[in-house]
Specification:
The complex is a heterodimer of chains A (145) and B (408).
Chain A: H1 3-14, E1 17-22, H2 28-37, E2 49-51, E3 59-63, H3 68-80, E4 86-90, H4 92-96, E5 118-120, H5 127-142
Parallel strand pairs in A: 1-2, 1-3, 3-4, 4-5
Chain B: E1 8-12, E2 24-30, E3 33-40, H1 48-54, H2 57-65, H3 72-87, H4 93-121, H5 125-146, E4 155-156, E5 159-160, H6 169-192, H7 194-200, H8 208-213, H9 218-222, H10 230-233, H11 254-278, E6 295-303, E7 306-314, E8 320-326, H12 328-340, H13 348-354, H14 359-362, H15 379-392
Antiparallel strand pairs in B: 1-2, 2-3, 4-5, 6-7, 7-8
Helix pairs in contact in B: 1-2, 2-3, 4-5, 4-11, 4-13, 5-6, 6-11
The chains are: A alpha/beta (145), B alpha+beta (408).
Amino acid sequence: MSLVHRVVRWGQRKSPWILHFNTGACNACDIEIIAALTPRFDLERFGVLLKGTPRHCDIMACSGPVTLQIESRIRRIYEQVPEPKLVVAVGTCATSGGVFDGLYNVKSGIDKVIPVAAYIPGCPASPQAIIDGFAKLLKTLEEGK
Amino acid sequence: MPDKEKIVRVPIGPQHPALKEPESFMVDLQGEKISSIALRLGYNHRGIEKGCEERTYVQDVYLIERVCGICSHSHSTAFVQAVEEIAGLDVPPRAKYIRTLIGELERVHSHLLWLGVAGHEIGFDTLLMYTWRDRELVMDLLAELTGNRVHYAMNVIGGVKRDVPQEQFARITSVVDALEERTKYYVELAMTEETLAQRLSGVGYLSKEDAERFGAVGPTARASGVDRDTRRDDPYAAYGELEFQVVTDTRCDVFGRAVVRLGELMQTYSMIRQVLKKMPDGPTSVRAPLKIPTGEAVSRYEAPRGEDVHYVRGNGTDKPERAKVRAPTLANLQSVAKMLENGYLADLPIVVAAIDPCFSCTDRMVAVRGTSESKTMNWEELVQYGVRWYRERGIDLSNVKMRGEVTA
């Protein structure tokens, strides 16, 4: 790892900005992601900040089983995120398709389309689980994995 | 010199910071003003209705609940009500009261959520943080009563899965009291805070005639003076035995929609207290058959966003032949284009958010007649088409029995 890389990683670990992208979810995980950012749970104390554009973010928090319509868009958005980028699959249907597995218009999991760094299962993933997932992901960054 | 007549087309979405769900708008702008708007939906279409036909009724309740994560109880109640009507089940009164209780708690969480999102859209993030902090109270309560914060899985065909014991009533009352205090504060805030009133008044105007013409439902219609509420007009569950007022407003703008939702919250608190007072004793469910007889039913439910309509047709097996969901947002979306006409681009997020859109509810499959060369086939025609298609390739399928064919 070059020096530049190490500095970027350090910055990313201290203030990971996330992009929230609904890839065909039922809204449940989405409201839980927002709940995790609001005062009760306050993900912001880890430096996590919600960003509007993929060009500003380090982590993509994706929820939903990836519908066929959204498939090309999620690829395009993934390509817009600057390196090094990480994808977190929030919720059971983002992880494996969950209850939507087998329906004609879904891909059953984010990892069928783009590489995923962390999985947070749960239907919906509770804010506590989301915080735990992010904390674990940041820890792996610290260890330089 | 810029050309005043020039129209600039701005694509918004499917991923954009204002709204959390994927949907796409093509906005034609003349300067700052919107001259026309085209909506593209379907990013959330998962094929739930078709999935329902492939799964059993018991599994369908879970699938239907995941049509939407915010009004999940609305969808599952509407679905089981339709199935119960086909099967002729007599749901115990206690189950009906528990359904009403959870439904109203869901309305509390949904309206508080909306208030926060509306605050966020106009740059008033303090309101978002306040309401979402208060919303955690009702989320905790729902988790205590049902076991989950969002998808409660409270409904089963024939009743509810869990009882709400007497010991929990005091806890419910204390949460409702606390939330009522907070809501009073928000009502006062909405009425006295100058910036809020000035930002929202006159934005997204929808006249009463237009609301009726476009078939708007729920708070969107009621804020335009349309006095319509399924809970009163066609009572289901325990609503026939509760006293409440339908909150309407004549402001016809986004501010009116906020006032209606806040008024509804106050009504909801009183309804929850009545439910607790009147809750009858008895069983919480009746045994439902696995196979539902032939028949069809339509069920209406006043979801937080408006009237939710479910249609189910049974064919004597353990799987429905057809399940159809008409979510409230679909009915309200037609009016959004009208609201945005001659509006400013900066008002787009709040006007769209004001109908409390839920695109995962909305994205169902519809066939529009006479638009392109596509055509619809019924099952029989589809079977014939398949047989012909394979025969052209040298495979004869005409003797193979297919699903759905009636065997004597």
